User: Fold this.
Amino acid sequence: MRILCIDYGSKNLGLAVSDDLGMMGHGIGTIRRRTLALDFDDLHKHIERYEIKQIVLGLPCNMDGSIGPAAQAVLAFGEELKKKFGLPVDTWDERLSSFEAEDRLIGAEMRSKKRRKVIDTVAAAIILQGYLDHIQQQERSS
Assistant:
């Protein structure tokens, strides 16, 4: 079952998908935000192309774990996704995923201009991999 992960932002949606086994996630690109309808059109193409069965949204919790305005916007977006696509939507704590993505790209000696183009995609892949690792750990514990 393939899972689509979305790193939700006001300007971009970073995207990553899992492999068929749900073990590995990889980035597939970024959608530049325009309107909700156009964003959903772009997402629909990815959902069909990759035969997505579930969506995971990165949830930007505050450092103390509380839900602030950014997380509330993600939760509202998740409700719209459920209505539009009829797929299960789960959230995953994304605290510091953008910082981790930035560190990885700097470590790879990627220039600043190029980093800005791919950071949302890398962050989505990091969020998805954390989610997949958690699911696998739960399955092993059962």
Observations:
- The domain at 2-141 is CATH 3.30.420.140 (Nucleotidyltransferase; domain 5).
